[in-house]
Amino acid sequence: MNRNNTISRRLYRILLRSCKEGVGVANKGNSIENISSIGNCLLLQPPMDPRKYGFAKIVKARRGQTIQRGNDTPKTNTAASEMYGNDTGMAMEVLRFVHVSLGGDADDDLDHYYLGVSDQDDSNAETSSVGAAAGRHSEGHYTQFLVEDEDQNEDFTGTYGDTGADEEDDDREQELELDESLLVTTDDLMNAVRIAFRAPLVSPTPSNEETWPKQTIIQRRHRDAIDVSNLLSEQLRMWSGKSSISVDLDRGVRIAATSTCLMRSSAPVGVSGLDKKSYKFAYRIRVENIADLIDEKKQPPSDDSGDSSVEHRAIQLLGRTWRISECRPKQEKHSSVLQRLLEQEDQAEEELREVQVVNEPRTGAVGHLPVIGPGEVFEYMSGAELFTPTGQMEGCFHMASVDMQKTDSAHVGNPVEALSWASNDERRFEAQVGRFGFLVDDYNESH
Prior knowledge:
By secondary structure, this protein is of the alpha+beta class. The protein is 26% helix and 26% strand. The chain has eleven helices and 15 strands.
């Protein structure tokens, strides 16, 4: 047992350090604007699937609300009992993301497992005193979920994409799926680690079901902690140097962008027929309406509901402007071995060359002009092709503040009232998208 406790403590410290230091390091090359009050952020996200290229969807943002039902219930998890409700909620969202990312079932009752919600006085050292590892319990080793799930790795069959412009959205809140991604702070990650390491070893609820020996549970949790460490490293790699977050507090808009390299090719391209490498990058853009968060901080909830209430404060994406640049060595024309060795002493000597400008203020994004309500996220995936392994992209979205009850999402070609408004109409505005990088992951390692 002493050896297991030593391993648990080491894993605990490693994960806490990775959360605290890793996010800061990853953000050094990113553009993070107007979020200094909440510290370092990281977007936990699924890998970009090439099959989703060009698709878009509106989803319900994760706000940590799912844990509120347990705030007044005694918890056997000492870490959770010391946190405020929303802190616990966001930490549980992190654990839920980890659980699903590593193969777990999204419907598993993680609140019950990690928080040990129970009316009983569970002081038995065999069930609650040993801190173990954070992470995956996807192989059925919940003490209350012992049945293996053999269908967890199905091919993609999701509904990522348009659900049809003619569908009614009267039950919009119920129809929206929950966001797969999660924007978190360093504190959210560290709180998740604290909760996971203090989860009861067995369910505090009496059960006649067979459970594993405590030694087996601890060893499996140790293995899970290693899996989580690898997952966090992958998330940091996906985010580092290729991302941006921009926030417009006046309009209640938060935009997160990140990119990845899908493929590279050395086949002849262009009319010259020269053998020139090209790099195809995909980027994921998330436009989030955070009016609900801003309203929450400015004033306490009110029972009054008028036309100016937060639930009506929607935004519509009308178009976009992008500036795409390639990053080239300043003295690229020199090809001698000596010259390249000399240039390695000053790798910062590179210049950005703008190669494409997209100015489409009236055609939405990937054909969509979505209306985004408070607490909702419009996400889409598109791409760009460069002839250098590094580059960057920045720009803005042309948007309008609209009444959600009177305005529907549209496609290009549909009538859109906001497009008829004068350019100086106070309801129209531009939401800036901070610079995010294009980077082939192994480029820095080879240069």
